Amino acid sequence: MAAAAAAVVAEPWLHGPLFSPPRQRGLSSSFERKFTFIRTVKLHSGTPPIPSLVPLCPCAAGHLDPVAGEDGAGCSLISEPSTTGVVSKEGGKDRRRAVRVAWEKLVRWSRSWRSRARSDVLERTKKVVVLGGGSFGTAMAAHVASNKADMEVNMLLRDVDVCRSINETHFNCKYFPEYKLPENVVATTNPKLALLGADFCLHAVPVQCSSSFLEGISEHVDPNLPFISLSKGLELNTLRTMSQIIPQALGNPRQPFVVLSGPSFALELMRKLPTAMVVASKDKKMARAAQQLLASQRLRISSSGDVTGVEIAGALKNVLAIAAGIVEGMNLGNNCMAALVSQGCSEIRWLSSKMGAKTATLTGLSGSGDIMLTCFVNLSRNRTLGVRLGSGERLEDILSSMKQVAEGVSTAGAVIALAQKYNVKMPVLTAVARIIDNELTPKKAVLELMNLPQVEEV
Q1: Residue 84 DSSP one-character state
Q2: Catalytic residue check, 317
Q3: Which of 317, 358, 403, 425 is catalytic?
Q4: Which Pfam family, just one, is annotated for this protein (predicted)?
Q5: Where are the beta strands (DSSP E) in 104-181?
Q6: Which of 236, 388, 413, 426 could form a disulfide with 393 if both were Cys (CB 3.0 to 4.6 A apart)?
């Protein structure tokens, strides 16, 4: 028993301020009953009772400051032991105080970090060009423009009517007719005027059109102009990602490149709702520069060096979203939805890992975050397409009725080619590709997937 007592007292996690001391009556679990017994038992040898489990000082709750217990937070290791085994009436107050102190430490750390954060990139940026006038390109143009009123944000478009609408009324008449754009957003169809003197370029052209579009404007692109890619997907015939397409199309393998990804609907950006995204670049300085340019009180920007992971997760989640939509359209229930998305996440992890992505990226904003948003929310174009497929509509009819591009349709075939290249089995995403190719019905696909061998989860 003495050994058991020593083990309990020695375990620091049992003394944490968030550990809830059990009541003597009405204990909620066998776990609590066991520890109540340990706390109150007396040894036959006449030794005193084992000390009760009491909270440490609040700084044990976990802190972000380099020195624990600063600002009078308290640094006593353990309060006086109880010899009665009766839970202190102050226990609830101690726990509330621990939570309050932990939160205050977090806020102090955040304020200290912000006070040291540099904003010189935004201060010296005079002009940003946005390639493409779709919903997300427009939303990001509006966001960047609102970060700095005297910065010119120039949108390069091909649609003359949308260009005129933005310049004359400050509305994108095609995608956001109800949301006024900042006054410093202008539009043009002239690539030379749009790119002249630009400090950053946001690329929002659909993946399948990007190569030809960039080749057409390459003569006007400064070789040192940083490109921030907003496009998600894989080029169907070549299996290239945007980090490969942009420098090759521009004829400059050293073109500065950053990819922006994460759970973000254009409509919610336009509504200025809180959002978090991630920028990734092999150049840490370039990632930090993009972070400074884009971050605001309503948009958190994390940074990463894993360009492959961010791009592949962003591309494959669109295909998985089609599968999730099919399940919804067929009314197969929540169990089926959870099983399918879980399997899809595993398939994305298998392929991404083979391609060199980091596991942490796949559980972050560009991975799990974007997957959850795209698979479960009705604003997702790819999910909506899947719902209509699952309801029995023909793919041709669906695509002809959509105003925006569902990248998952063209990406699906490229994903399967990548899976074959890296020798990865991807049953869910392969089924989506076959449904899109009209070689398999949604119902038949579900039956085949359910009849796959029962294997060990990996």
Answers
A1: S
A2: yes
A3: 317
A4: NAD_Gly3P_dh_N
A5: 127-131, 152-156, 171-172, 176-180
A6: 388
